[in-house]
């Protein structure tokens, strides 16, 4: 029995039936091979819509949305205000033009109120005179035609009245 095949050795590189048995796996030991584990199936792709990305309960998102809505409303209101200002200016210009052409005076005859009379002013022909007369009629000066007498009142023609006085350009007697 000293044949080379029957000599038992535990030296590395030599293989015997005993060595083979010791290195084999039993059911409770780990695999001695370095091979990778079997491949698992790949997970399904994650498909999300934009609506899935939103967080409807997020306070920050709600506040951001409110801020955007406020900015939109603010721009609409600013545009409306601009339109209103332009319309107001147009109306003011109309009345400015109209007011430079007409004037009202309340009239009493024998201490009995007869109503207002409309006086048409020729503003294009005499703008300073018309503006001066109008300012007296509306009480914009320190004096007015209150308790003044009219000598003549001729419909659709002319009015002559009031005290005959000399006034300086600043409106003082």
TrEMBL record:
<dbReference type="InterPro" id="IPR002130">
    <property type="entry name" value="Cyclophilin-type_PPIase_dom"/>
</dbReference>
<feature type="compositionally biased region" description="Pro residues">
    <location>
        <begin position="35"/>
        <end position="44"/>
    </location>
</feature>
<dbReference type="InterPro" id="IPR029000">
    <property type="entry name" value="Cyclophilin-like_dom_sf"/>
</dbReference>
<feature type="domain" description="PPIase cyclophilin-type">
    <location>
        <begin position="104"/>
        <end position="173"/>
    </location>
</feature>
<dbReference type="Pfam" id="PF00160">
    <property type="entry name" value="Pro_isomerase"/>
</dbReference>
<keyword id="KW-0175">Coiled coil</keyword>
<feature type="region of interest" description="Disordered">
    <location>
        <begin position="1"/>
        <end position="46"/>
    </location>
</feature>
<feature type="coiled-coil region">
    <location>
        <begin position="60"/>
        <end position="101"/>
    </location>
</feature>
<feature type="compositionally biased region" description="Polar residues">
    <location>
        <begin position="1"/>
        <end position="28"/>
    </location>
</feature>
<dbReference type="GO" id="GO:0003755">
    <property type="term" value="F:peptidyl-prolyl cis-trans isomerase activity"/>
</dbReference>
<protein>
    <recommendedName>
        <fullName>PPIase cyclophilin-type domain-containing protein</fullName>
    </recommendedName>
</protein>
